[in-house]
Amino acid sequence: MANTDYLEIYFKQDWAHYFIFGCAILSIVWGLINVLIIRNIDITDPAPIKAFFEEEIAAGINDEEAEGKDTETLAKDVITELKYIGDLITTGAIQFLWAEYFYLTLFCLAFALVIGFTVDATEMARADSPSNFPYTAVSFLVGASTSILAGYIGMRIAVYTNSRTTYMCCKGEMQSTMIPKDQTTGNYLDTMARFHDITSTECKKAEAQLDEGGTEWEEGQVKDLKEGFMTAFQGGQVLGFTLVGLALLILEVILLVYKSAWFDVVLNKQLESTTDQAKLDHEAAELVRRHFEFVAGYGLGGSTVALFGRVGGGIYTKAADVGADLVGKVVAGLEEDSPENPGTIADNVGDNVGDIAGMGADLFGSLAESTCAALVVSSTSYELIKTADALYYPLIVTSVGILASFASVLFANFFTVNVHTVQNVLKAQLGISTVIMTIALVPTVYILPEKFSFVLKDAAPITTTNW
Description:
This protein is mainly alpha-helical. It has helices spanning 16-39, 47-58, 71-124, 135-169, 187-193, 201-212, 226-271, 277-295, 297-331, 343-378, 382-385, 393-409, 422-441, and strands spanning 174-180, 217-223, 451-454, 462-465. The strands form 2 sheets. The protein has a two-stranded antiparallel sheet. It has a two-stranded antiparallel ribbon with strand order 3-4. Helices cover 69% and strands 5% of the residues.
């Protein structure tokens, strides 16, 4: 088979990378659009909060707060306090992340050297088709950097969206709906309506009673939280879409760069002296496996940062939470998350760096390492290697997920949101996205060969179908 271009037989590219690039860019752009939407919220306008206080006073709720102050002054005081607390949380979260990422960067650089002098050094010293660059170490650093970026983006958009969500929750009108009978007195509504009492003891008791069942329901008034919900939902979309788009885009770039820099160079050279078809398939599969193992460092870097982000941020947030509770509840007798307890700020900082920055890095790590694992496994199938775009199937699934998510988030605009329906709306979003994703994946199975086998080292091949 002399003068044969084996790139037309093995690991062939057709249209998949165009589709992957398009979906990744769409995802990032949609995340940026949501950033602009959130940035357009002006929290300096006291009108919504003024109207909120006027509604409360008209209903006989919290009229003691209005003594000696008009609603305009009350609203301006709330905005001042809102911005002050938001700035404290933002400053604390940024300082924590910078400290954490400093030491994490040192660790990643040291670990990359270990990978370079072990894994990459072994690959570069091979007699047959040695690698010409420390690909795995570089993939590790790129994955770690992307994971750090994902966590930072998540934290920044979270602290920016928090105060705007609170502000937008004041904009909704009171609406009639069925609520528990014992909550129509106004006491529960008073507790639920005020953002700094949202986790107070009275609120928790009422929620526990709802969970136990047996509550009598009647028509009552609740606050329409649609605008506040959509603000928080858009903040979540920034992290979700941007994270997946970045992960997909960078992984596709690594695959294409490594393929052109090493795989395309060595494939024809490695196979030009072989005529046996079984041996050709075996050696091509071995090169594809090595290629994907070079890329697998990307997933390792993401999961390494995720480990530090989740554990480090989790320890911080738990220490801050317990410390605030010990001082506030036990010593001073304050309610949980009381604005009179300065430890609440540290608790909120911990929530952002642990549950959001850590979660963002964790999500990226899970996506990257699962995709890289699927790529390595796919290299054991000769049929996949010889089918155009089939090896890119794990990335195509993620790309389809972006489109399905983009369609499903639009349905959030059609729901009514109040304190009793928030959880149901989120569950509905999960159900809608699952249905759309399942349907959208059906055409993609035809990218794969109808039947293919995975070759195992010490066992019989596993044969499956594209379904």
